[in-house]
Design a protein that fits this description.
310 residues, alpha+beta
């Protein structure tokens, strides 16, 4: 097809800078991809959703002026809908703003606070000795536990036998620190690797309030936990690193440690099975028998930038 003369080409009404980073990794093309629009004023809801669908990452963020006196207002979109909170979008947005000068000359250690639908999300930025700034968010809401889900239905949705699912410590159960996930402990790493979303069976879980399923095993290697997350009915067959899910998992595990008031931490691997290895650091604090605070953190790296023509 011949190119249009310059004078006949459609002229975009607005242009928007965007950045793409990988979150929960220090290496490009690992971790979880995120697109960030750092100055999104002027975009409406429909345009934000279209842009998120165009990038087709698990999430895209849009940064807006604050309304409550905090650092920025942030909206988070999957390819199909807006979500009130998510982990790696917060860390990647904080990284993008810091790395590209949108926070001015401020240097670590520092904190930013994002206004989101789920509440205020503080993100701390520290500069460890290896030269890679570390980003850690505090979940916007306390741990809340929801319904337990039938093990047989969970096994069918994950293409696993019932014997591959552990129920001695807890049955498959919804847990949230701002976004709900079904937490499923599996018997071993082999079961974790074999799990596959069964699209014919996932609607059964959806009818019980389950949109996203987070699988985990306790690990005996350099990691404490290994995890995977499926949300096939939300356009995310598998997520390489899910901060909000692992943050809720940290809260659940601390909750299960009866009578032990202290701070817990875990080193978590995710994304290995899909070729995008990620490393997440989760923490939880328990006081007077109640999980009061959860955190998730990791590193980020920028891999691309460009201009959107709207």
């Amino acid at each position: 097809m011949p190119k249009l003369p310059v004078t006949e080409r459609p002229v975009p009404l607005m242009t928007y800078q965007f950045f793409i980073c990988d979150v929960f990794t220090k290496q490009a093309f690992q971790g979880n991809q995120l697109a960030v629009v750092p100055e999104a004023s002027g975009l409406n809801d429909e345009q934000m959703q279209q842009i998120a669908r165009e990038f087709n990452f698990s999430e895209t963020t849009f940064v807006l002026p604050p309304e409550q006196g905090q650092t920025k207002r942030v909206r988070i979109f999957t390819p199909t809908s807006e979500v009130p909170f998510a982990g790696h979008p917060n860390l990647g947005t904080a990284f993008t703003l810091y790395h590209n000068g949108y926070l001015g000359d401020a240097q670590p250690p520092l904190q930013v606070v994002f206004e989101e639908k789920a509440g205020l999300v503080p993100v701390t930025i520290t500069n460890p000795n290896d030269g890679h700034p570390f980003f850690e968010l505090q979940a916007p809401t306390p741990l809340s536990l929801g319904a337990e889900i039938n093990v047989e239905a969970v096994g069918q949705a994950l293409s696993l036998s019932v014997s591959a699912i552990r129920s001695d410590r807890h049955r498959p159960q919804l847990a949230s620190v701002g976004l709900p996930f079904l937490m499923v402990e599996l018997k071993d790493r082999e079961a974790l690797e074999k799990a596959r979303p069964n699209l014919d069976a996932f609607p059964v879980l959806q009818a019980q309030g389950v949109a996203m399923t987070h699988l985990y095993v306790r690990s005996e290697d350099e990691f404490d936990l290994r995890t995977r997350m499926f949300a096939p009915l939300d356009g995310v067959t598998e997520d390489p690193a899910t901060g909000s899910a692992n943050c809720a998992l940290a809260g659940l595990l601390a909750h299960l440690e009866e009578g032990l008031d202290r701070e817990y931490d875990w080193r978590i691997a995710q994304g290995v099975e899909m070729g995008r290895p990620s490393e997440l650091r989760a923490r939880a604090r328990k006081q007077n028998g109640v999980v009061t605070t959860t955190w998730i953190g990791g590193n980020c790296i920028q891999v691309a930038e460009g201009i959107l023509h709207i």
